[in-house]
Structures are given as C-alpha cells and as structure tokens.
Design a protein that fits this description.
Elements: H1 10-38, H2 48-60, H3 70-102, H4 104-118, H5 126-133, H6 137-161, H7 165-173, H8 178-215, H9 221-228, H10 234-262
Length: 271
C-alpha cells in the first residue's frame, strides 16, 4: 500500500506525534549532560534539576515586593491580554468579514484598505501604538488586535465570497434581503471557518503579546523572560517558554474540540 493511502489510527497518531518530542527532549538532556560534565557551572543548557529549582521560586515563593506568586501572576496577566485581544479581533473579523464577503460594493471599497493594513508588519506599528496609546494595557491589546484582525478579515471575507452562488439565489427567491442572507446563509457557514482562523492566529497573537510585554510591562510571561535574560537565567526562560507552548497547545485543542462539537458537518464524516 502506498503511504499516501495509509490511514493512521488515533492511538498510533498519538504515539507517532510524541516520538519527535521525546527525541528532542533526549537530545537536549544529552547535550546538557555533556556541557555540565565539562563545566558544572554551565548556565546555557540547565539540567532538569536546575530548571525545577529556578522555577520553583517563582511558583511557590511570594515576591518580597508584591507578595504575589510571580509565575501565576505573569500567566494571568498574559492570558488576560491575549484573551481580550483575541476576543476583539474575532468579533471584528466576523462582522467585517461577513459584510465584505456578502456585499460586493463594500468589498470593492474596503477590500484594498484591509489588504494594505494586513501586509504592514505589526511590530513596526508598536512604537506608534505606545506613543499614541501610552504604555498601559491598551497598547498591548491593540497590538494583538492590529496584528491578527486584518488577516482574519481577509480569510472570512474570501470564504464567504466563495460560497456557492446557488445558495444566494435560492435565498433571494424566498424573499431574503441582503442582511437576511448574511445572517441566515453566510453566518452559520462562516462560524467553523472563524474558529479555524482563530486557531491559525494563536501563534502570531502570542508573538505580538510577548513583544509588547518585553518592551513595556511590569508583569507577564514575556516581561519575565526578557527580564531574566540579562542574568542568563535559562533555568527560568526554558520553563517559561515550555509553559507558553503548553498554553498555546491547550487553546488550539480546545478550539478544535469546540468546532467539532458545534459544527461536525464542517469536519467531514471521517472526524
């Protein structure tokens, strides 16, 4: 049987997917052991015991100044910013994407503007946002929104515009107006696509969040990573990066689960 026709069972997918991760962990442990054998004070590749010791201080010991557990306060602050940014971007992408996709005159008028904004590197706008909005939470959330919304809008608009023309004609035959077509025909079919667009935007959203926190913040996962880097504290940086990966994976899995439960028709019978 050709590999292109070979289907992988769910249990085997989990096993095969875990192998590369396990190999990377083993490779890291081997390289870390080699470096510590040559230099016991090496800080570039800390051993698991060193990372556990470094992160336990942030996990379980209250900060002397704030009295907070820094790891959890950093996590909460970052998740609040990320959640607010994703929420605003998702709602905006849905509304604007539906209008652009269903109404050709609006698409012709605003489509070039959305495209122009989408191709601007959001990081280049960071100084402008900080100057215009200050160094508070608004600028950080705005960077996430500006960074991911235009791409999501273009994706939703293109998907809605490509819906079968027969559906639009049938709805009009039954007397539906443009707004009724948007709500009753386009919206239900755009929802699974919207969740897919959010999943694809998670990575860029984290990048923009970490960038904003690194430049102007006093709490957050990105702030902590860039704060301790000056001390070469890889025993803190690596666990923080791993924790960000875990959070991102959890969010991706949750969005996939919600999409398949609410819109099973969009994933096909095989899923």
């Amino acid at each position: 049987m050709r590999w292109v026709n070979r289907q992988v069972r769910r249990g085997d997918r989990i096993l095969l997917g875990s192998l590369p991760i396990l190999l990377l962990v083993l490779l890291y442990l081997f390289m870390a052991a080699q470096r510590h054998a040559a230099n016991p004070a090496d800080k570039i590749l800390p051993l698991p015991a060193g990372m556990a010791s470094g992160i336990s201080v942030l996990l379980f010991q209250p900060d002397q100044l704030s009295g907070q557990l820094l790891f959890w306060s950093d996590t909460l602050a970052s998740l609040q910013r990320l959640g607010l940014g994703l929420g605003i971007a998702t709602l905006t992408a849905l509304l604007v994407g539906l209008v652009l996709g269903v109404l050709p005159p609006v698409r012709a008028t605003l489509g070039p503007l959305v495209t122009g904004i989408a191709v601007i590197p959001p990081i280049a706008l960071l100084p402008i946002l900080f100057i215009a909005l200050g160094l508070g939470e608004t600028a950080k959330v705005s960077l996430i929104v500006v960074g991911i919304t235009p791409v999501m809008v273009r994706d939703i608009a293109a998907y809605v515009a490509d819906l079968p023309r027969e559906q639009i004609v049938k709805a009009q035959t039954l007397g539906a107006s443009s707004w009724q077509i948007m709500i009753r025909v386009a919206l239900p079919q755009a929802m699974p696509r919207l969740l897919h667009a959010v999943r694809l935007s998670l990575g860029p959203a984290w990048v923009f969040l970490i960038s904003a926190e690194a430049i102007a913040s006093d709490v957050g996962l990105g702030y902590r990573i860039f704060l301790v880097r000056r001390y070469l504290s890889m025993d803190v940086i690596i666990p923080y990066v791993a924790w960000i990966a875990v959070l991102a994976i959890f969010m991706d899995v949750a969005l996939t689960f919600v999409s398949r439960r609410l819109f099973p028709w969009a994933h096909g019978a095989s899923h």
